[in-house]
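User: Can you model how guanosine-5'-triphosphate sits in this protein?
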Amino acid sequence: MVGTTGAGKTTLIRQLIGTDPGTEPFPATSTFKTTTAETEILCAPGDFYAVAVFAERIKVRADIEDCVVAAAAALAEGRPHDIARDALAAHTDERLRLEYVLGADWLDAAVSTIESVLRHRPAAGLDEVADRVRTEPTLRALVDHLLADVAARFTTLRFGQLLTDDDETWPRCWQFTTDERSTLFSAIRRLAGNDRGSHGTLLSPMVEALRVRGPLHPTWAGEIPYLMAVDTEGLGHVPLTAASLPLAVIEQLERADRIIVVDDATHPMQAAPLAALRQLVMAGHLDKLALCFTHADGVVGPNIGTTQDRDSLLRRSVNQAVLSLRDDLGETAWRALAHQLDAHHFVLGHLDQRLDSRNPAQTPVIAELNRLLGWLRKERVTIDTSSLRPVYRLNDLRSRLLAVAEQFATAWPEMLAKTHWRQVQALCRRIADGGDGYADLQPVAQLTASVLDAIRDFVERPIRWTDVVPADDQQLALFDGFLRTVTGEVLDVCRAELAGSRRADWEQASTQVGMATAIQRVATLAATVFGTLTGVGTDGTSLVEDVTELVRRAALNSGFDIGDVVRPAGNVFGQTLKPVRRPGLAHHRGF
Ligand SMILES: Nc1nc2c(ncn2[C@@H]2O[C@H](COP(=O)(O)OP(=O)(O)OP(=O)(O)O)[C@@H](O)[C@H]2O)c(=O)[nH]1
Ligand SMILES: [Mg+2]
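Assistant: Here's the modeled complex, given as structure tokens:
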């Protein structure tokens, strides 16, 4: 399930696994940024089994520190007590909700502690605040104290088994098995719940990944559908430029048989789900796609008399949305997407309720859900592309990749220069600690998306075909399959180039604290992390060459003809590459 936050992804999963809206609040739903853990639910016969993987201690500590910095910064800016309180209660990325774990009783005292520290020695400027939280004993003690309180909460789990790290100071994961449905939901409440009455006991904000297996099935279909549903974190309402899907989602795409873009029917399709659709098509997943409209029960108005009126309105909404992708996707992929969504869009409402076939308002929803389940079960039709032999020139890919790297190396420092210094510093620290990004700042996800776009652009334009030119649908199937095979490796290279092999540079930039050094920090990043993207890094790796090589290998494995590789002499970096035309190929105008 992919879609904006609050669209109804988790509610749809609840319908597919048949958990009762009144008595089994699993998985948790609410209005905003509810699902934060990667959640997989496997419907299968046998016992119930659950496993939860926790965030690492270092990450939780960093997040708590962020909350204290945000609260202190609010107070230093002269903002009211309540704003500082909110900042402590939940991290800005809405994952670490300390209020869920620790309740609300400690919040006022913690704000008062910060207030008294600042009163005693006012911060010279906002840039000093983050530094003070890290160095001043009282504020450091506050962070440590909160972390210890969080750690203590794990020991109060009544059900299941905790597995700890080697030093036994922090749990790695939790697991639980039972043959009773009600026991499963009691046990899982603290690991996956959001119920207000349980605030102060919940560990759900600590959970990064959750998998539940059991004999679960929809109430409106009497059998276990052998389905694994994967829920994802909701997309923000404003899409990032090239990448709208989080890395965690991109990593999962290849193993998903179907991808459902979920959207709220009560408003026209927004930019974020559209950008997600575009990215899914570009990454080669078109034939897995469906669009599910939720909240159809809320689509009302003087112009809507019947369900036909409503469905026609939604069809028009899909059409207009898809039409807006025409230029971007190109004619063939665009037309295929339109056909795919004509047949595979589902109009669903009342999903938050236990559906009843005797209720005339709900029977169309049950029919639609059954149609969806039928599609989920159906095997995908694959087009045989084994005999297709497109011919490529790898230098065409190099020049495209170099353009991506150059654009990225210029745009990111420019964008970071305009971003609040605290966000940039948090990004530096997050990547230095082993992450890929922070909040909306997701360089690895964006680079991966841009590189995949460049590869797609390259494979869609072979210089010729060795035999007859294949039909459009065959070509599309070939290109899609190729993109899917390279996605994982492209992500690995981008992650290594921007994060893995550059941790020391991010670390160095993160130690330049405060607003005053913000310009210097971005300059450091521009020179180290981003600057080397277009060339060879200190470790001898190169984005352009590494990606070219992995595409070359994948192309050979797919039987493509890349025999006319013309490697330019000397160092290609920093030069504009001119495609070398061989006399024998000069007449191929397709290029
Ligand atoms: N009336 C009505 N409410 C719905 C429907 N589908 C979902 N909801 C409600 O919409 C809200 C958001 O649903 P969620 O399933 O939590 O949304 P989500 O997409 O998982 O959101 P995130 O986890 O934040 O990404 C909840 O309050 C649901 O009860 C529907 O078909 N009709
Ligand atoms: Mg959700």
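A couple of observations from the model: The chain has a mean pLDDT of 87. The chain has 21 helices and twelve strands.
User: Helpful, thanks.
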